[in-house]
Amino acid sequence: VQLVESGGGLVQPGGSLRLSCAASGFTFSRYVMSWYRQVPGKEREWVAAISSSGGNTNYADSVKGRFTISRDNVKNTVYLQMNSLKPEDTAVYYCTSNYAGGAYWGQGTQVTVSS
Question: What percent of the chain has pLDDT over 90?
Fold first, then answer.
């Protein structure tokens, strides 16, 4: 099983980024996919989740209305579109699946929001 995040970087407040997570090694289309984020010294925080079909999504209150999670079950990829970014969104962003009870995580991609 592999989960490979990409798309992070440095962006100014108010800017946008689109994260991607390419999955392999399991039947992607059968499982819920989620994004989490973590700041050094703090616990990992859940950000968003999407159902296996993509028909249902959920968001943390802190990102609701600014972030959009989506998936492509042909490309085995989940996305996180992040708009109106704030300095407090700075973190390492990870994707995971409920395959094997969430045992697998990507290496993360750094998002830094700063002027």
Answer: 96
Does residue 44 carry a pLDDT above 90?
Answer: yes
Q: What is the pLDDT of residue 102?
A: 83
Q: Looking at residues 33-56, what average pLDDT do you find?
A: 97
Q: Does the pLDDT of residue 34 top 90, yes or no?
A: yes
Rounded alpha-carbon distances, angstroms, from residue 89 to 21, 23, 53, 97, 98: 18, 24, 27, 22, 24
Structure tokens at 42: 């703090």
Q: Which amino acid is at 26?
A: F
* Phi and psi torsions of 28, nearest 5°: -50, -45
Copy the structure tokens of residue 58. Answer: 């959920």
Tokens at 56, concatenated: 């249902």
Sequence-distant (≥ 6) Cβ neighbours of residue 40 within 8 angstroms: none
Structure tokens at 85: 């970014």
Residue 20, Cα to own-chain centre: how many angstroms?
Answer: 7
Q: How far apart are CA 110 and CA 6, in angstroms?
A: 9
CA-angle at 40, arms to 36 and 46, nearest 5°: 15
